[in-house]
Every structure is written in C-alpha cells, then in structure tokens.
Amino acid sequence: MTVPRRKKVMVMLALLAFCMPTPWMPARAQTLVADLSSHLIAITTGFTGTDVVLFGAIDQPGDVAVVIEGPETSQTVRRKDRIAGIWINNETLKFSHVPGFYGVASNKPLDALLPPAVAQRHEIGLDHVRMLPRVDADAATVAEFRAALIRNKQREGLYGTEVGEVVFLGQRLFRTSISFPANVPIGLYTVSVYLIRDRDVVGAQTTPLAVSKIGFSADIFDFAQHDGLAYGVMGVLLAVGAGWLAGSVFRKG
Q: Which residues cross the membrane (predicted)?
C-alpha cells in the first residue's frame, strides 16, 4: 500500500471513529441505540460478497425500519424501440441522486408501519427514494424510466427485491442482517434506523459504513481511475506481449 493510500485509509477510519457514539458522549434522547458488526467492508481479490449485522435496542416497545443507502451517482436510462426491424436506443433520461445501493428492512410490512407521506419524507422503501430527472419530462415518462432504473439495479443485485426482516429478541432488542453482493460499489454508505410508533417516526439514528478496495486490487483500480491513458497503453502492451509469447511457444513446439 502506498503512503497516499495509507493516509486515505487512516482518514476514513478516523472519520468513522468520530461519527460513532462513544461512552463519554452526553446522552440525548436514548429512545434508540444501534450499531453494526463492522464499519468497513474491505474489497480484496476474490471478494464474493459479505453480510453485516445490525443490532440495537429501543427504550419502549415499538417498530423498527432500517434503510441502507450506497453512494449517490448519476444514472442514464435508455429505452430501446424496434425501428425498421432493428432494436436501437431511441430515448434516454438521466437521473441524479441515485443510490448505488439501496436496501430496506423492517419488522412488519412497510405499508402497515407508515403512511405514504411519512415514508416519502424519510425515503423509506424503493417507491419513495428521491431520484431526480436531469431534464423536464412529464410524470408518466419519469415514472416509466424510474421503474426501469429500479429493475436494472435489482437485476444487478444492488437494490433489494424484497423488504428484509428485522427480528426482535423480546420487546426491546432487535437485529437484522444486511447482504452486500460482490459488485457492491465502493464509497461511503449510511445505515439509518427508524423507531416507529403510532404510524410515525419518533426516533432515528444514522451510522456510517465504508466500502473500500484494499490491497493490490485497490492499487490497480486507483491506477485505472487516475491514469486511464497509461493503464490502457499498459493493457495493450501486455496483450501484445502475451500474444507474442504464446506464438513463440507454439513455434517451438
């Protein structure tokens, strides 16, 4: 690991440590306390996905919803139409503030916990994620492209197709497991836990989670991102060299 990369990792860990609650911090309204089994997902060579456990406690009986959001990106959605017997991209719509990863879990069905207006305000559930079109378009077009964007993310395993389960151990303690696929985007995530009573959010806590490439694969990724031309030239030279080496072996044979 190079010195600049080591510094970046140290800064990220320091940020996480600063955001995490500590025993000497003054207690605010302790209606809800939650934490993760790990605040860092390390992407290494051969990474096939992982699970992170969230556990917590509430002061009085209630319901809990958990939202996991990955780094925001801009996303272009393309619609293909059949023109002259050929399928081509005929229309596009670009969205901003699109979570690279999104998941939600709760101890009851979301529509039984919250009215749509409250769920919309806190962006709890895929129907309420605020994805903004970059250009003006009618509501029907936005809804169509938005649905296509969600389907694409679900096919990639980056958006949950079902609401996960929050399990209560008694009336106060709860836990849930968050699954991250092998293609999980790197960046800073937020895990928001909402305490719900009488169909309203009465408490909330947000915990950071970092997804970062570690080791040799991280160095390759950084090289490709920051010096794309040199990375491309090197790739071509390696391919040519491999082809020349293979040809030499077969000629000798």
A: 229-250
162 C-beta neighbours (distance < 10 Å), count = 9
In which residue ranges of the chain is pLDDT below 70?
1-30, 80-90, 215-253
Residue 226's pLDDT is: 57
Sheet with 167-169: strands ordered across: 32-36, 50-58, 173-180, 167-169
- Whether the CB-CB separation of 10 and 40 falls below 8 Å is answered with no
Chosen CATH of 3-214 out of 3.30.70.20, 2.60.40.1930, 3.40.50.300, 3.50.30.30: 2.60.40.1930
Please indicate, yes or no, whether the overall pTM of this predicted structure exceeds 0.85: no
146-170 per-position pLDDT tens digit: 999 999 999 999 999 999 999 999 9
Q: How far is CA 133 from CA 76, 91, 146, 151, 172, in A?
A: 9, 14, 9, 17, 41
Distance CA 144, CA 199 (A): 30
Nearest-10 crossing angle of helices 216-226, 228-252: 120
Determine the Cα–Cα distance for residues 30 and 35; give it in Å rounded to an integer.
Answer: 14
Write the pLDDT tens digit of every residue in 92-116.
Answer: 899 999 999 999 999 999 999 999 9
Q: Are 71 and 187 in contact (CB under 8 A)?
A: yes
Strand 200-213 relative to strand 40-43, pairing: parallel
